[in-house]
Structures are given as C-alpha cells and as structure tokens.
C-alpha cells in the first residue's frame, strides 16, 4: 500500500533510508514501517545510511505539493533503456546479464524484486536509423525492441517489466513530470548554440572533444547547432547535489566513480536543453507542439513509468508502485545523466532519489569500447547459439571485474568456460555420480549432515558460500563466481585425496567411508548449484535434476538452503549425465579431426594388411 504524505516540500526533510523513503513525524521519530533491508554494507545503519533530500519545490501548485512515498518492500532494479537505432550487441547485453544475476540473487534471498528493462525509442538517432532502413520510426522501433526481447529470452533474462518509451503510459508520465518541473519554475526558454554529438544525444563542451571536434566516445565529429530550446535549471541544484553526495558517498558505485561525479558538480553545473525544435520523433512539449522533449528528459522517466500497471498511468500511481529504485545499473558512459541530471530532475519534481547508481565498465575489443557507433561489436546471438546462455553469462560476469573494463577473446572464453563449468563443476558431479551408481545403486548412504560429522570440508564449504553471498550483496559478481568455484576446487581436491574408488575396492568400513565421501561431494554440488544459479540458471537446474530434485523444487529454492545438510540418506540420484558439454576450440577440433583421420587411415592400412595376410 502506498502512503501519500501532504507536506510543505520547502521545509520538509526527507530521508531516503537504506531501503525506502521514510519521513520524520511531528515528534521527530522516524517512521520505520516501510523500511526495507538493503545492502547493509552500502547503507549501514549509521547516519550514512540516510539519503537526505531537501526538496525545495515551493513553486508547485497546491495539488502537486506533495511527496509520494512508496511503501513497497520491493527491490527495484533497472537496466538502461536501450537505444533502438540498431539491434542489441554484447555490450548492451552485458548490463542486462549483470542485472539479471543481481535480480536472481535478491529473489533467492527472499526479496520481492521488480526488475525493469526496456527500450529508448525517441529522438533524432532513431528517426535517422529508421529512415536508413526505409522504415518509419514506429515500425522500426517495433522490430528492434522485439529483437531486444528475443535476446533477453535467449539469455534467460528474468525481467519483470519491459518499458518502451513509445508506450502511451510512458508518454503520459513524461508529460506530467515535465509539467511538474515547469510548475516548480525550473524550465525556461533560451537560444543555444553549441557542438552536438548525435550518438550521445548531447551538446558537448569544446574542451572535451578530440581533433576535428570529434566525440571521444564515438570518434565522430560533432555538428554545430543553434536552437531555440527549453532549458532545465540544473545549476539551481548544484548545492543540493553536492550535499546529497557528501552525505551519501555510497550513492555512486563503484566508489572510485564518485570523485568523477563530484568533480563534474564542483566544476559548475550548466543548465541543459530539454527540448528539440528540429526533432519530430518524440513526445511533444506540453503547450508547444513545435518542440519535442529531449530524449534523456524522456527516457529517464521510463524507470518510473515502467512501474505502473495501468495504461492510463499517472506519476502518482507509478511512484506508489515501487519508486524509488533500489539500484540503477548503467555503463560508465551514462553516469552523468544518472548521477547528476536525474537526481536534479527528481528533486525539482519533488520525488525521492534512487538509492544507488552503479556504473560498470566497458566490454572492449582491441581496447576500444564495443559499440554500434564504432561497428566493432560482438554478436550475442551468435555466442548464445554456439556456446549456450550459461557459458555467455558466466564468462562475462566471471571474467570482467564488475565496475572495470574487460577485453573479449574467444580463446579465453573457451578456456575459462571449459575449465570452470565443464571440468571443475561438470566432471566432479559426473564422476561422483558414476561412483555412486557403481557402488551404491545411485542411493545416498546417509544424511549429508551425518556424513560430514567431524569433517573440516563442511566448514570450508560453509565459509566459501558465505563469502559468495557477501560478494553478491556487494555486486562483486566476479568474486562471487570465484568463491563458488572454490567450492568446486575444494571438492575435486577432496576426491583426489580421499580416492573413494580405491576405498570401495577395500570393502567393509572403508567402503562405508567412501559412501560418505560421495554424499559429502554431492552435498557440495547441491550448494554450488544454488549459489551459482544467479549466474548460470540452466546449469544449476541440470545439476539439481541430477541430484534427484524436480524443476519445481529448484524454482522454489532459497539462498537459506545453501546451508549444509540438504541431502538425505536414501535419496536417489539420477543417472549420471554430463551437465555441461566441453566446448571444442578450433585448434582442438582440428587436432581431433586430424587424429580421427590418422586413426581411420591406420585402420584402413591394418585392414588391408589383414586382408592381404589372410
Ligand atoms: N538510451 C540510453 C540509456 C537511457 S537510460 C534511461 C543509452 N542507450 S545505449 O543503448 O546506448 O546504451 C545502453 C547501455 O549499454 C549503457 O549502459 C552503455 O554503457 C551500455 N553499453 C553499450 N556498449 C557497451 C560496451 N561495449 N560495454 C559495456 N556496456 C556498454 O545509453
């Protein structure tokens, strides 16, 4: 249920807690009813945990002079809304894969999650792309946004909301938001002359450009533009933004990006134009049909409009369905829009700020950002078709430290995926189940808790899985994968040291010890399956099925079940079947084909020799 609070926004002091927004009541006691538990390490319960937002929206008309407070307990997570100038590439898929892993982890931890993604469909860039394909913008957007949905499906992205900025409910919310900001006195009309990068959809400062006025990101010349536009009074919010960041240094993550944001603000914020007279493909400015709303002033609102269930949405209904977002996941190139422009826009409209903005690094190819504009992209569909979604998800989340850049190489992809998923995890499970079948009719001899009595292996697993949990909470996805893989390494070591296959041969008490060893390894596999499921959901399901569980049991599993002791004596495992097929790299494949050819030749020689000898 949403709480709606009347207030004089000018004097109201609002706290964005580590979870939801809560107000100070007349006696000064915080109303904690709606508080969510969020990442304790990022929003500790100290004063650092509260994000102040002193909203000075005193010019809003009475009807709008209110703060909307979401009381939902949901963990609201967003990806950027992707431009539909071209189909998705691996760079855009990367943000979404990471977001999906975080969403799945939060669900496993018992949170209600609202995972928002979508497409950014207005503006000059999109209209130009449509024209280049001899299409009209609307049809073009339908095709490309469908391509995003199809890819998310292939990559097992479990999003809850897909917002398109051409959805009528979104357009209604943008118009309402614009009117609020206007009513607050933060929009004015002026002429603007400057250098514009169409790919960034942004006017650029000359000093940040390369030779020939080239945009440093897209390496294409910016064009001189002069426009009569509406402007948003960003400069008015400089002090409030500075204070907000000072009091909430965890608002921008990873922490090393905070300095950058603070220095942008410190160097002086310039008002920015929020309408385009020259662009037809967009949402009309209220009361001026000759202008359309600037794509960023439009798309950012998608994070709110996505929350609305209704087709005829209003800001109020959307906000009360889950705002503020817990986490905006974005690439570092759009940090300024999310950590400076967006909070100022929200302050102006009297709405609470998201709790965190995380700017990850770039996937690069030969050191350059992979992207549609540079044309150096990697085809995610191709990768998924060749290697499967688990391999793609695992590689990028394991290989690239989340927050930093990472270069792609196919050899590395194949080596990592084979070593970790096929060998460390897949082989361990397969050989353990093989031994269990041969010696114990695929049936567990005892409960895993009994099997591990007095055994330090259990402690090792418990420590590693707790480490993985903390890393997930910290959004350190690569380290989380590493901690889970360490369980697999420890399992392999345990098998090699205890050699249950020879204990079985000895029979008697040794055989009983060996049967317990198998239970121990399979219990570790069960824990690995759960702990790796945010990253490799299909592989985890296959492991679970091998351990004799149903798909429904897998679907309802929780992080709490990573506690040692799930497997029970008498439980029957499935017939051993490899859960992850090793990827053959080209050289290996060629070597093998050569070997096969050589083998056949040898066979033919022997055969003809035999025939001759007969
Ligand atoms: N439409 C805007 C976002 C509006 S959000 C309200 C936009 N779209 S985009 O399609 O250009 O980029 C979307 C996301 O993909 C950005 O976070 C961007 O950083 C990310 N990536 C695009 N190329 C990338 C790489 N090569 N590597 C990692 N992520 C990159 O910006």
Could you outline the blueprint of secondary structure elements for this entry?
Elements: E1 3-6, E2 14-16, E3 21-23, E4 51-53, E5 66-69, E6 75-83, H1 90-108, E7 113-120, H2 124-132, H3 137-154, E8 161-164, H4 168-183, E9 187-197, E10 202-204, E11 223-232, H5 238-247, E12 252-253, H6 258-266, E13 272-273, E14 275-276, E15 284-285, E16 288-293, H7 295-299, H8 302-305, H9 315-319, E17 327-331, H10 335-349, E18 357-360, E19 363-365, E20 368-369, H11 380-387, H12 389-399, E21 406-407, H13 410-440, H14 448-451, H15 456-473, H16 477-498, H17 500-506, H18 508-532, H19 537-546, H20 551-555, H21 586-613
Parallel strand pairs: 6-7, 6-17, 7-8, 12-18, 17-18, 19-21
Antiparallel strand pairs: 1-5, 2-3, 2-4, 9-10, 9-11, 11-13, 14-16, 15-16, 19-20
3D structure, described in words:
By secondary structure, the chain is α/β, with parallel strands linked by helices. The chain has a domain at 417-572: Isoleucyl-tRNA Synthetase, Domain 1 (Orthogonal Bundle). The chain is built from 21 helices and 21 strands. The strands form 6 sheets. Strands 8-7-6-17-18-12 form a 6-stranded parallel beta sheet, sandwiched between helices. Helix 12 (389-399) packs across helix 13 (410-440), helix 12 (389-399) packs across helix 16 (477-498) and helix 16 (477-498) packs antiparallel against helix 18 (508-532). The chain is elongated. The termini are far apart. Bound molecules: 5'-O-[(L-methionyl)-sulphamoyl]adenosine (MSP). 5'-O-[(L-methionyl)-sulphamoyl]adenosine (MSP) binds next to strand 6, helix 1 and strand 17.
